[in-house]
Design goal:
The structure is a single chain. With 355 residues, the chain is an alpha/beta fold. Helix 4 crosses helix 5. The N and C termini lie close together (10 Å). The chain has 2 domains: 170 residues, Alpha-Beta Complex (Quinone Oxidoreductase, Chain A, domain 1); 144 residues, NAD(P)-binding Rossmann-like Domain (Rossmann fold). The protein contains 11 helices and 18 strands. The longest helix is centred in the middle third of the chain and has 14 residues. The strands form 4 sheets. Strands 3, 4, 5, 9, 10, 17 and 18 form a 7-stranded mixed beta sheet that branches. The protein has a 6-stranded parallel beta sheet with strand order 13-12-11-14-15-16, sandwiched between helices.
Protein backbone atom coordinates (compact mmCIF):
# COMPACT_ATOMS: atom_id res chain seq x y z
CA UNK A 1 0.00 0.00 0.00
CA UNK A 2 1.00 3.66 -0.30
CA UNK A 3 1.73 5.71 2.81
CA UNK A 4 3.31 8.98 3.93
CA UNK A 5 6.35 8.21 6.08
CA UNK A 6 8.19 10.51 8.47
CA UNK A 7 11.74 9.16 8.52
CA UNK A 8 13.24 11.80 10.83
CA UNK A 9 11.90 14.79 12.74
CA UNK A 10 12.25 17.90 10.61
CA UNK A 11 12.36 16.09 7.27
CA UNK A 12 9.62 16.20 4.62
CA UNK A 13 7.35 13.18 4.50
CA UNK A 14 8.15 10.57 1.87
CA UNK A 15 5.26 8.95 0.02
CA UNK A 16 6.23 5.38 -0.73
CA UNK A 17 5.03 1.80 -0.88
CA UNK A 18 5.07 0.02 2.48
CA UNK A 19 3.84 -3.42 3.58
CA UNK A 20 0.12 -3.78 4.19
CA UNK A 21 -0.82 -3.86 7.89
CA UNK A 22 -1.31 -7.40 9.22
CA UNK A 23 -4.44 -8.18 11.20
CA UNK A 24 -4.18 -9.54 14.73
CA UNK A 25 -6.67 -10.52 17.40
CA UNK A 26 -8.35 -7.45 18.89
CA UNK A 27 -7.64 -5.39 15.78
CA UNK A 28 -9.37 -4.09 12.65
CA UNK A 29 -7.95 -3.12 9.27
CA UNK A 30 -9.64 -0.02 7.85
CA UNK A 31 -9.46 1.47 4.35
CA UNK A 32 -8.86 5.18 4.96
CA UNK A 33 -11.35 7.40 3.13
CA UNK A 34 -10.50 10.76 4.74
CA UNK A 35 -8.21 11.92 7.53
CA UNK A 36 -7.73 15.39 8.98
CA UNK A 37 -4.42 17.24 9.01
CA UNK A 38 -4.07 19.13 12.29
CA UNK A 39 -3.15 22.80 12.02
CA UNK A 40 -0.08 22.17 14.18
CA UNK A 41 0.99 18.96 12.43
CA UNK A 42 4.03 20.69 10.99
CA UNK A 43 5.18 21.71 14.49
CA UNK A 44 4.86 18.11 15.68
CA UNK A 45 6.67 16.56 12.71
CA UNK A 46 9.47 19.12 12.86
CA UNK A 47 10.08 18.39 16.54
CA UNK A 48 9.14 21.94 17.57
CA UNK A 49 6.34 20.51 19.69
CA UNK A 50 8.15 17.95 21.79
CA UNK A 51 5.69 15.14 21.31
CA UNK A 52 6.69 11.56 22.09
CA UNK A 53 6.86 10.39 18.49
CA UNK A 54 9.48 7.92 17.27
CA UNK A 55 10.31 7.92 13.53
CA UNK A 56 10.15 6.22 11.17
CA UNK A 57 6.38 6.45 11.44
CA UNK A 58 3.26 6.92 9.34
CA UNK A 59 1.62 9.95 11.03
CA UNK A 60 -2.07 10.72 11.19
CA UNK A 61 -4.40 10.74 14.21
CA UNK A 62 -7.73 9.09 13.47
CA UNK A 63 -9.75 8.84 10.28
CA UNK A 64 -13.04 8.08 8.61
CA UNK A 65 -12.97 4.86 6.63
CA UNK A 66 -14.49 1.50 5.82
CA UNK A 67 -13.76 -1.76 7.54
CA UNK A 68 -11.64 -4.07 5.42
CA UNK A 69 -10.98 -6.93 7.87
CA UNK A 70 -12.00 -7.71 11.43
CA UNK A 71 -10.33 -9.92 13.99
CA UNK A 72 -11.86 -13.15 15.34
CA UNK A 73 -13.13 -11.43 18.50
CA UNK A 74 -15.26 -8.76 16.78
CA UNK A 75 -18.99 -9.39 17.18
CA UNK A 76 -20.62 -6.41 15.42
CA UNK A 77 -18.15 -4.82 13.01
CA UNK A 78 -18.19 -6.19 9.49
CA UNK A 79 -16.31 -5.49 6.25
CA UNK A 80 -17.81 -2.50 4.47
CA UNK A 81 -18.97 -0.68 7.62
CA UNK A 82 -18.33 3.06 7.66
CA UNK A 83 -16.45 3.88 10.85
CA UNK A 84 -14.72 6.56 12.88
CA UNK A 85 -11.26 5.43 13.97
CA UNK A 86 -10.54 6.95 17.36
CA UNK A 87 -6.81 7.73 17.78
CA UNK A 88 -7.10 7.52 21.60
CA UNK A 89 -5.58 4.10 22.28
CA UNK A 90 -5.46 2.84 25.88
CA UNK A 91 -3.41 0.01 27.30
CA UNK A 92 -5.51 -3.04 28.09
CA UNK A 93 -3.67 -4.33 31.17
CA UNK A 94 -4.71 -1.60 33.65
CA UNK A 95 -8.37 -0.60 33.40
CA UNK A 96 -8.09 1.72 36.41
CA UNK A 97 -5.21 3.87 35.12
CA UNK A 98 -4.40 2.95 31.51
CA UNK A 99 -1.49 4.38 29.60
CA UNK A 100 -2.64 6.36 26.56
CA UNK A 101 -1.31 7.17 23.12
CA UNK A 102 -2.78 9.15 20.28
CA UNK A 103 -2.06 6.75 17.45
CA UNK A 104 0.07 8.37 14.77
CA UNK A 105 0.68 11.49 16.88
CA UNK A 106 2.12 11.05 20.40
CA UNK A 107 2.47 8.86 23.45
CA UNK A 108 1.11 10.24 26.69
CA UNK A 109 4.12 9.17 28.75
CA UNK A 110 7.45 7.39 28.51
CA UNK A 111 5.79 4.16 29.60
CA UNK A 112 3.15 4.55 26.89
CA UNK A 113 5.93 4.37 24.28
CA UNK A 114 5.66 0.58 24.62
CA UNK A 115 2.09 0.83 23.39
CA UNK A 116 3.13 3.22 20.62
CA UNK A 117 5.76 0.75 19.38
CA UNK A 118 2.97 -1.72 18.63
CA UNK A 119 0.18 0.57 17.39
CA UNK A 120 2.86 2.63 15.72
CA UNK A 121 1.50 3.91 12.44
CA UNK A 122 -1.38 6.30 11.92
CA UNK A 123 -3.85 7.08 9.18
CA UNK A 124 -1.87 8.90 6.48
CA UNK A 125 -1.95 5.76 4.38
CA UNK A 126 -4.32 3.76 2.23
CA UNK A 127 -5.01 1.40 5.16
CA UNK A 128 -4.51 1.46 8.90
CA UNK A 129 -4.56 -1.10 11.72
CA UNK A 130 -6.61 0.01 14.75
CA UNK A 131 -7.59 -1.62 18.06
CA UNK A 132 -11.10 -3.03 17.80
CA UNK A 133 -12.41 -0.87 20.64
CA UNK A 134 -11.30 2.29 18.78
CA UNK A 135 -13.37 1.52 15.67
CA UNK A 136 -16.93 2.87 15.95
CA UNK A 137 -19.65 2.54 13.33
CA UNK A 138 -21.15 5.81 12.11
CA UNK A 139 -23.81 4.37 9.81
CA UNK A 140 -24.19 4.60 6.06
CA UNK A 141 -22.62 7.65 4.42
CA UNK A 142 -21.44 8.50 0.93
CA UNK A 143 -17.76 8.68 0.04
CA UNK A 144 -18.07 12.47 -0.25
CA UNK A 145 -19.60 12.71 3.24
CA UNK A 146 -16.46 11.12 4.70
CA UNK A 147 -14.79 14.53 4.37
CA UNK A 148 -17.46 16.26 6.47
CA UNK A 149 -17.15 13.55 9.13
CA UNK A 150 -13.51 14.56 9.63
CA UNK A 151 -14.93 17.45 11.68
CA UNK A 152 -16.06 14.88 14.24
CA UNK A 153 -12.71 14.98 16.04
CA UNK A 154 -13.06 18.72 16.68
CA UNK A 155 -16.30 18.01 18.52
CA UNK A 156 -15.18 14.87 20.35
CA UNK A 157 -12.56 16.63 22.48
CA UNK A 158 -15.01 19.22 23.84
CA UNK A 159 -17.72 16.59 24.31
CA UNK A 160 -15.31 14.61 26.48
CA UNK A 161 -14.90 17.69 28.65
CA UNK A 162 -18.64 18.21 29.03
CA UNK A 163 -19.18 14.55 29.92
CA UNK A 164 -16.50 14.92 32.61
CA UNK A 165 -18.31 18.03 33.91
CA UNK A 166 -21.73 16.35 33.79
CA UNK A 167 -23.11 19.25 31.76
CA UNK A 168 -26.89 19.53 32.02
CA UNK A 169 -29.46 21.12 29.65
CA UNK A 170 -30.22 24.72 30.54
CA UNK A 171 -26.83 25.45 32.09
CA UNK A 172 -24.57 28.39 31.24
CA UNK A 173 -21.21 27.40 29.77
CA UNK A 174 -18.04 29.40 29.25
CA UNK A 175 -15.70 28.19 26.49
CA UNK A 176 -12.29 29.73 27.09
CA UNK A 177 -10.42 29.83 23.80
CA UNK A 178 -13.50 29.59 21.59
CA UNK A 179 -11.91 30.86 18.38
CA UNK A 180 -9.73 27.83 17.65
CA UNK A 181 -10.71 24.60 15.93
CA UNK A 182 -11.44 22.76 19.19
CA UNK A 183 -12.89 25.80 21.01
CA UNK A 184 -15.38 26.56 18.25
CA UNK A 185 -16.32 22.89 18.34
CA UNK A 186 -16.89 23.32 22.06
CA UNK A 187 -19.39 26.09 21.39
CA UNK A 188 -21.32 23.95 18.91
CA UNK A 189 -21.36 20.91 21.19
CA UNK A 190 -22.55 22.87 24.25
CA UNK A 191 -25.48 24.20 22.25
CA UNK A 192 -26.29 20.73 20.91
CA UNK A 193 -26.32 19.42 24.49
CA UNK A 194 -28.86 22.06 25.50
CA UNK A 195 -26.81 24.82 27.12
CA UNK A 196 -28.96 27.89 27.56
CA UNK A 197 -26.06 30.30 27.01
CA UNK A 198 -22.48 29.89 25.84
CA UNK A 199 -19.96 32.58 26.74
CA UNK A 200 -17.29 32.42 24.03
CA UNK A 201 -13.94 34.04 24.80
CA UNK A 202 -11.10 34.83 22.45
CA UNK A 203 -8.84 37.55 21.12
CA UNK A 204 -9.99 37.44 17.50
CA UNK A 205 -13.03 39.70 17.21
CA UNK A 206 -13.83 38.56 13.67
CA UNK A 207 -13.91 34.91 14.75
CA UNK A 208 -16.07 35.77 17.77
CA UNK A 209 -18.52 37.66 15.58
CA UNK A 210 -18.67 34.67 13.25
CA UNK A 211 -19.61 32.37 16.15
CA UNK A 212 -22.47 34.68 17.09
CA UNK A 213 -23.62 34.84 13.47
CA UNK A 214 -23.57 31.05 13.04
CA UNK A 215 -25.26 30.10 16.30
CA UNK A 216 -27.43 33.05 17.27
CA UNK A 217 -28.31 34.76 20.52
CA UNK A 218 -27.42 31.85 22.79
CA UNK A 219 -23.75 32.64 22.05
CA UNK A 220 -22.30 35.68 23.82
CA UNK A 221 -18.79 36.56 22.63
CA UNK A 222 -16.25 38.28 24.88
CA UNK A 223 -13.07 39.66 23.38
CA UNK A 224 -10.18 39.16 25.81
CA UNK A 225 -7.80 42.11 26.16
CA UNK A 226 -5.08 40.41 28.20
CA UNK A 227 -5.89 42.22 31.44
CA UNK A 228 -6.96 39.49 33.87
CA UNK A 229 -9.24 41.59 36.09
CA UNK A 230 -10.78 43.49 33.18
CA UNK A 231 -11.40 40.28 31.24
CA UNK A 232 -13.01 38.56 34.22
CA UNK A 233 -15.35 41.46 34.81
CA UNK A 234 -16.27 41.60 31.12
CA UNK A 235 -17.27 37.93 31.28
CA UNK A 236 -19.39 38.42 34.39
CA UNK A 237 -21.07 41.53 32.99
CA UNK A 238 -22.10 39.70 29.83
CA UNK A 239 -23.08 36.34 31.30
CA UNK A 240 -26.45 37.44 32.65
CA UNK A 241 -26.62 34.31 34.83
CA UNK A 242 -24.29 32.29 37.06
CA UNK A 243 -21.72 30.34 35.04
CA UNK A 244 -22.17 26.65 35.75
CA UNK A 245 -19.28 25.19 33.75
CA UNK A 246 -16.00 26.51 32.33
CA UNK A 247 -14.28 24.53 29.55
CA UNK A 248 -10.71 25.69 28.96
CA UNK A 249 -9.27 24.91 25.52
CA UNK A 250 -6.55 27.57 25.35
CA UNK A 251 -3.48 26.82 23.16
CA UNK A 252 0.12 26.47 24.39
CA UNK A 253 0.87 30.16 23.73
CA UNK A 254 -1.75 31.27 26.28
CA UNK A 255 -0.77 32.47 29.75
CA UNK A 256 -1.94 31.37 33.21
CA UNK A 257 -3.65 34.76 33.56
CA UNK A 258 -5.86 33.93 30.57
CA UNK A 259 -6.87 30.67 32.25
CA UNK A 260 -7.59 32.33 35.60
CA UNK A 261 -9.61 35.16 34.04
CA UNK A 262 -12.21 32.59 32.99
CA UNK A 263 -11.77 29.97 35.70
CA UNK A 264 -12.55 32.37 38.54
CA UNK A 265 -15.91 33.34 37.03
CA UNK A 266 -17.51 29.97 37.77
CA UNK A 267 -20.32 30.00 40.35
CA UNK A 268 -20.10 28.36 43.77
CA UNK A 269 -20.36 24.57 43.32
CA UNK A 270 -19.47 25.07 39.66
CA UNK A 271 -17.18 22.90 37.52
CA UNK A 272 -14.06 23.71 35.55
CA UNK A 273 -12.55 21.35 32.97
CA UNK A 274 -8.97 21.93 31.76
CA UNK A 275 -8.28 20.48 28.28
CA UNK A 276 -5.98 23.04 26.67
CA UNK A 277 -2.27 23.22 25.96
CA UNK A 278 -1.06 25.71 28.58
CA UNK A 279 2.26 24.44 29.95
CA UNK A 280 2.67 26.74 32.96
CA UNK A 281 1.26 26.35 36.44
CA UNK A 282 -1.99 28.21 37.08
CA UNK A 283 -2.30 29.70 40.58
CA UNK A 284 -5.81 29.33 41.98
CA UNK A 285 -6.79 30.88 45.36
CA UNK A 286 -6.99 28.05 47.88
CA UNK A 287 -9.61 29.76 50.06
CA UNK A 288 -11.88 30.55 47.09
CA UNK A 289 -11.60 27.00 45.77
CA UNK A 290 -12.39 25.43 49.14
CA UNK A 291 -15.14 27.75 50.38
CA UNK A 292 -17.00 27.74 47.04
CA UNK A 293 -16.74 23.94 46.63
CA UNK A 294 -15.34 24.26 43.10
CA UNK A 295 -14.56 21.13 41.09
CA UNK A 296 -11.54 21.40 38.78
CA UNK A 297 -11.15 18.44 36.45
CA UNK A 298 -8.24 17.73 34.13
CA UNK A 299 -9.37 15.80 31.04
CA UNK A 300 -7.22 14.48 28.19
CA UNK A 301 -9.42 13.47 25.27
CA UNK A 302 -12.61 11.57 26.24
CA UNK A 303 -14.09 8.37 27.61
CA UNK A 304 -14.61 5.57 25.10
CA UNK A 305 -18.38 5.57 25.56
CA UNK A 306 -18.52 9.27 24.61
CA UNK A 307 -17.93 8.49 20.94
CA UNK A 308 -21.16 6.57 20.11
CA UNK A 309 -23.16 9.13 22.11
CA UNK A 310 -21.65 11.97 20.10
CA UNK A 311 -22.33 10.11 16.85
CA UNK A 312 -25.97 9.93 17.96
CA UNK A 313 -26.00 13.73 18.44
CA UNK A 314 -24.80 14.15 14.86
CA UNK A 315 -27.23 11.58 13.48
CA UNK A 316 -30.14 13.22 15.29
CA UNK A 317 -29.43 16.57 13.64
CA UNK A 318 -28.67 18.31 16.96
CA UNK A 319 -25.00 18.72 15.99
CA UNK A 320 -24.18 19.69 12.42
CA UNK A 321 -21.00 18.83 10.54
CA UNK A 322 -21.89 21.27 7.78
CA UNK A 323 -20.27 24.36 9.29
CA UNK A 324 -16.81 23.16 8.32
CA UNK A 325 -15.17 23.97 5.01
CA UNK A 326 -12.56 21.47 3.83
CA UNK A 327 -9.64 21.63 1.42
CA UNK A 328 -8.76 18.14 0.25
CA UNK A 329 -5.38 16.78 -0.84
CA UNK A 330 -4.26 13.44 -2.21
CA UNK A 331 -1.63 11.45 -0.38
CA UNK A 332 1.06 12.45 -2.89
CA UNK A 333 0.56 16.07 -1.81
CA UNK A 334 0.86 15.44 1.92
CA UNK A 335 3.61 18.03 2.48
CA UNK A 336 1.53 20.69 0.75
CA UNK A 337 -1.41 19.65 2.95
CA UNK A 338 0.67 20.18 6.11
CA UNK A 339 1.64 23.69 4.96
CA UNK A 340 -1.95 24.49 4.02
CA UNK A 341 -3.25 23.35 7.42
CA UNK A 342 -0.83 25.68 9.21
CA UNK A 343 -1.67 28.64 6.97
CA UNK A 344 -5.44 28.16 7.26
CA UNK A 345 -5.86 27.34 10.94
CA UNK A 346 -9.01 28.48 12.64
CA UNK A 347 -12.61 27.63 13.41
CA UNK A 348 -14.60 25.60 10.88
CA UNK A 349 -11.62 25.23 8.53
CA UNK A 350 -10.22 21.77 7.78
CA UNK A 351 -7.41 20.32 5.73
CA UNK A 352 -8.15 16.73 4.74
CA UNK A 353 -6.08 13.97 3.15
CA UNK A 354 -7.87 11.52 0.89
CA UNK A 355 -5.56 8.48 0.55
Amino acid sequence: MKAAVLKALGSPLAVETVPDPVLGTGEVIVDVAATKVLAYAGDVLSGQRRYLLEPPIVPGAGCIGRVREVGPDATELAPGDWVFCDPTVRSRDNAQAPDIILQGLTAGSQRALRLQKYFHDGSWAERTRVPTECVVRIGAISDAEAVSWCAFGNFAVAYGGYVAANLQPGETVLVNGATGAFGSGGVAVALAMGASTVIATGRNQQALDDLARRFGKRVRPVRMAGDEERDRQAILDLAGAPIDCVLDLLPPAATPAQVRAALLTVRPYGRVVLMGGVRQDVGVPYDWLMRHCITIHGQWMYRRDAIPRLIALVRSGLLSLEHHQAKCFGLDDVNEAIAHAAAHAGPFSMTVLRP
